[in-house]
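At this stage, I wrote out one protein's amino acid sequence and its backbone structure tokens, and that material follows here:
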Amino acid sequence: MASPQSPASSASSGSSRSFNQNRPQTLEDLVNHFVASKRSLNTQTVLWRANEIVNTARELLEENAVLAAKNASIRNIVDEQVDALEAVRRGIDVVEAEVQAEFKQILHDVDTAFAGLQSTLAVLRDTPIEAVLQPPGTPQKHLFDFIDSATVTNLKDSLRACIDRYNEVRSGLNDSNDAFDTALDNLHSSIDNVPNTPATASTPTPIPSLYHDLEGHAKEAAQAFQSLVRHYDLCVTALRHTEGGSAAATQATGDAPVPSSDDFSAPPEPMTEEERQEMLTVLVKDAAEVEDVVSEIRERGSEMTFLLSHVETHITHLRNEDTALNSILRMISNIAAEVKSHIATSRSFHASWLEDTRPTLLTGIEEWESQREFYERFDLAYAELLVEIASRRRRHDKAKRKAEEAHKELERLRIDDERAREHFTVAQGDFLPLDIWPGLRDPPRKYEVRAVGFSRNDDDAEAPEPEDSGALAQSIPQLGRNVVERALTRVKRRM
């Protein structure tokens, strides 16, 4: 149209429906253009609303300046007061934090020492005594059955009682500080809940920019509406210069009054056919853009409503912020009146830590470590016992083999001696009298190799007594190869 379009309207013009500008325009075409242009003038209500929006935004712009300055000043006061209260609270926290940090570390050490002991005890629970080491019919026992677990339990109960005493003392400290902490928590919560009005360092408030955009949209919408009015006037002029146009326009609009300075009943000004064709060309071109211009005006109206909602939202934030900040100032005043009653209670807590909790826990750690070392040594000793039993069995078997070999050699020598004597008797016996040597006809002496055992009495004295090899072998158990290998692995791992 004749008025310049914004980039948005220019972009939308390309998508509007097109008219065939090359064919002659009929009366029906002109009436349709006229009806469409008249309908487009209904967008005047958008302009009225745009004017209201601009006036409202101007008033809110002034209120924004006052509230922004007031809220910034109160926030500075709140920050200073909160810093002062937090400094007092940090002073109370210093002793508690130091004690609690050391307590957590020592408690961690206690847990670590206890976990190590429990790990060792678990090994004892899972380590069975080999059945061959126990008398027949004895229920299965484990290494854990041979220790005094009451010592572990008693120390555990003692440390638990110490920790309970610490928790009681700390609970007293918490009770003393509870009112202060609750007040500070409520204060921080209230500060956090203060509406945080959107702002940046470069743009403390968006309202001036929004107001500028509103004015721009209102101006562009007015200019676009003026182009619709000019198009409407052009449609009226075209109908007046067309035969039957006035009657057709009146019939199409239902005899409704036409908002124009021209009247269909007045005679049209003279116009040449060439001028009329130029007018129709412009009319057809503008008619193709009517819908886009109407859409542009409505879009700008919607955008202005949207921008005004942002302005109103921002002002609402400022108002809510003002109310909340005034409430926070009252809270700070109440908290400041109660600060002194929350300072002295940390002294008894610190004294209890130094005189009771800390030394008791450190002693407990030492005892846990001592017990663990003792029971680990017990487990290692049992593993070494299995290795020793296997070694004794090997030495016994070796001695037994040597004894069997010696027995066989003695028996062979006896047989050789017996044969030699028989041969001598056969060869010389008839010639020698029996009384020449009483031992002439004696058989060879018989030697034997046998095991000599021992008996266990109350004094653990060893008394040698005869015992067969099988019984002696039973006194040294025969352990399975896998048992001995596991024992060796445990011994090597702990060396």
About this structure: The first helix runs from residue 7 to 13. Confidence is low (pLDDT under 50) at residues 2-19, 255-263, 458-467. Residues 330 and 388 are 83 Å apart (CA to CA). The first strand starts at residue 452 and ends at 455.
